[in-house]
Structures are given as structure tokens and as C-alpha cells.
Amino acid sequence: MKKFPLNNVASSGIAIGTAFVAQGVDLSPIGGDIAPDEAEDQIAAFVRARDESLAQIGVLAETNDIFKAHLDLARSSSLYNGVVDKIRVKHKNAQQALKEMEGSLAARFESLPDPYLRERATDIRDICGRIMANLKGVSLNIFDSINEDSIIIARDLTPSDTTMMDFSKVKGFITALGGVTSHTCIIARSLGLPAAVGQGNVMENITHGQFIILDGEQNFAILDPDEATIAEYRTKIAENAELAEALKKTANLPATTTDGHTVEIFANVGSIADTVAAKENGATGIGLFRTEFLYMEGKDFPSEDEQFAVYKECADIFGDAPIIIRTLDIGGDKALPYFTFPTEENPFLGWRAIRMCLERQDVFKTQLRALLRASAFGNIHIMYPMIISLEEYRAANALLDECKRELTAEGIAYNANIPTGIMIETPASVMIAEDFAREAGFFSIGTNDLTQYMLAVDRGNDKISQMYDSFHPSVLRAIKHVIDAGAKHGKMVGMCGEFAADKKAMKLLLGMGLHEFSVSPMDIPALKDRIRAASYAEVKDFAQEVLVKPTLAEIKGMLQ
Ligand code: PEP
Ligand code: MG
Q1: 248, 525 in Cβ contact below 8 A?
Q2: Atom of ligand 1 nearest to the CA of 329
Q3: pTM score, whole prediction
Q4: Which end of the chain is more exposed for a tag (fewer CB within 10 A), N or C?
Q5: Is the pLDDT at 256 greater than 90, yes or no?
């Protein structure tokens, strides 16, 4: 039994399971040259693997058009003839022949002047990778083989990696890289799984198959625990579950303080499943729908109809309650599998979110039209991310107006008065918050990004993660400034950054006058419970005292 300290715990809780040390799938060919009389067997193996791949792609193509093009490429005579030729004439085995053909076909596409055709090189690699996996008898989804309670140990995990996991078996994550507000951590929190990130040498210290306990409450992992320790932790897990169940019973009560001040507790979601969970856990609205997850799942930008269906379903679940849907916030640490971002020195300061949308108006307008159409069915609010200027806000609204005119001309219903608001997540928007408050419908403070930009500390960099702290006096005063600016002009100010769910921040945020807290569905019952136990008069005084403290150390001292 050995304790392994964890410094960056991004999502608390306890998990027990077998370590699954995630290594990439090895798609390199095994063997090379063959004797001439082996050729026909190798061709048969290739054809079998190709047909298996065609069947798999066929299933994917039922729900996603992009795979229809993959079917054509996989069936193409150039791929078949090329591979067969290399096996029969050059005496290569099927795996080697396929690898060589993948290289030459991809290079052929990459050399074309048309950007659309150049992109097909990625499709070729995708298809050949799938055929290779079938030839080698390995699964493309490395998490496929998980068949018992497991804790994933990985160098890094992307949000798309998490889409491949079966969460009835995956119980927690520990990664070598990443910061606590990376999107993988946000996903872990939304699932209620413990996660520790930026743990440096974790891959070297935990072996595949080793039994471990991940204690995200006391911040360590126990490797090879003894029976007594396992039993003790199983009891803790059961107690936590009981507590969560008990809290759920009061989840639908309003978040009203002991002296009668009520705030809204909304949910941060990224899918319909999250939206259902939000409703079950007592959310009175959706404070942030991260639409980028819809864009990450597919093989191409989601169509207007596909998006409309999701937004409408959300509206159906929440009735008249507000649903704040954020327009595409891609870039930074969020990539799309089918879209190549320019290589940038500083992606978090680069061509992302609203900056990309205002340029790629085709992509943006598709989303705005889908949101408008869904607004006929519920109380949908549109929120723009990463705004730094009134010009951007007005430009986004101008495109929204263009979409409204188009829909009117097409005779399609929408809410002409759909509210639009902004994320406050840049120092620029904080400084001119009063000007925004005159024009924008509402604010939601995104402390994940605001903290990194206020402090100039990369939210994903584990080397400086101890400097990333939303209790820094500059961040707290920025938040207060924004809340006051909104109040002055009668605009709702919410917070959808992870700070809204911080147990120690609750008194402070409530006392500063925050009107809406938007947190993971799982965090809602406990947050409501804490607010119901608080006195508004007391937390207001407390917040005033904290806000004048000039150092983080003094602030932390007051919060103890
Ligand atoms: C934020 O920056 O606080 C936020 C909520 O947005 P995201 O985490 O998606 O960048
Ligand atoms: Mg953000």
C-alpha cells in the first residue's frame, strides 16, 4: 500500500478501481515482405478488413453524412487496386501495403490546390487507420476494452476522448498534463467523477492494472490498498451517496436565505442528458449551454436542423424558465476534429470564439438561425463568448437581425425579442461593463477565463497552477464591479465559471449581490442547501470586508 499525493484536484469525490493506463492505439504495420505464394491470403485479409470497416462506417453514416463520403473512399478502386498491386507485385504484406497506399493517396490529396479536396487527406488517413485496426484486430477506441471499474491514467485527455468512455465503468481520471479548469475537468465535474490533473509523472508511477483508490477529498491516491482500507473507502462512498440523495429531496426548494433573499441556481450543461440532470437536480434555468460539445461529436459542423432539434428539446425540458445558450466557443483548448485552426503562438489569445464566428459567418448564422427557430418553443437567451468590445456585440446582433429577416421572409416562427447577452470573461469587458450594461440584455461572468486573463496565468498550465486563483483581490473586485454595473442598469448578472460552485466562494458571491449561480447539475442541491442556511445581511458585510483586503493571503485567511 502506497500513498501518491495529488496536487491539482479538479473534481472531488472518491473512486475505487483498476488503473487503466491509456496508451494510443498502435497502428503501425507489423511485418513487411512476403513470399509470392502468400499474396492471395494477404489480399483476402485486406478485403475482409476493408469489408468490416465498410460495415462499421455504414453504421456511422446512418446518423452522419460525412461518413457517406468515407464509404465511397473506402470502396474506391484506387485504394483496392493500389493495395492489391503492392501485395501481388511488390510482395508486401497487407498491413505494409495499406500503410504505403495511405501515404501516397493522402499525399496526392494534400498536393491539390482546392482546400476542400485537400481536407480529404484526413479522411483517407481515417479510413486507412480503421482498416489497419481491423487488419490487426485492435479496437480504435482505446477505452473499449474497459470492462471493470477503472480509473483512467493518461498523459492528457481531450473532451473528445471522454466522448468514447463508458461512464458506468470509468470512475475517475488522473492526468499528467492540464489545469483544473480545462474542459476535461469540467466534464468530470459534471459527471460527479473525481479528477486530478497536471500530476507530472503519474504515468511512470502507476502501472496498468494496479488497484487504486483516488481520494479527491483529501488529495491523494492509494496504490495497492489493503482490504481494510478498501472497506473503509467503500463505506465513505456509500455515505456520500446517501448524503447526495438526502440533499436531492430538497433540491426543488428555492435558494432563499434565512432572511428572505432569493437567488437563481442555474445549470451549466453541454448536452440533452445534462439538461435532464439539471432539471432533476433542481435547476431553475440553464445558465450556460456549452454548444461546442455538439460541434465536437460529429465529423462536420452540425446542420441548422440538427442544432434546432437539440435547442428545442432543451426548451421543451425547461418550459418557460430561461435557457442561456452560448454560441460556439471554439479554439483555446477546444478543437474540432474536422476543422483546422491556424497554428498560433497563443491560442487562448488567438482566433477563437466570437472572433472566429464573426469571420466564419456561414458557421455562425447556421447556429443563430437554429437558436431563433428554437426560441419559438421556449425562453431561449443567446450569449456571446469572449467579447471585448461593443463593436463585437453589435456585429453579432447585426447578424442575428439578418437571420431574423431571413426567417420572416421564409415564414418561420421565432421570438423577435430574444434576449442577447455576453460572457464577461475578459478584462476589457470588465472595464467597460457599464457601457455593456446599457446595451446587453444580461451578463454571465466566466471566471475560468477571466481569472487567466486578469492574472495572465494560463488556465491549462500545470507549472503555474498555484498562481491561478479566483480569490485574487483583482478578480474579486472585477466581479464586484460587473455585478454593480449590471445592477445599475437593471440587468441580470450571473456567473457560469467554476468559481460559482466553489464552496468557499458562496458567501462572498452571494454577499456581493450575484443574482444567478450557474453550476454543474450535480452541485446544485448542495449549493442551494448552503444558501438556504446563510443570512444575506451577514454575507453582505462579510463580502465588504473581504473586498478591501489587498492580498490573497489575507483573503484566504478570512475564508478559513
Ligand atoms: C469561463 O470561461 O468561465 C466559462 C464558463 O467558459 P469556458 O470554461 O467554456 O471557457
Ligand atoms: Mg470561457
Answers
A1: yes
A2: 9
A3: 0.78
A4: C
A5: yes
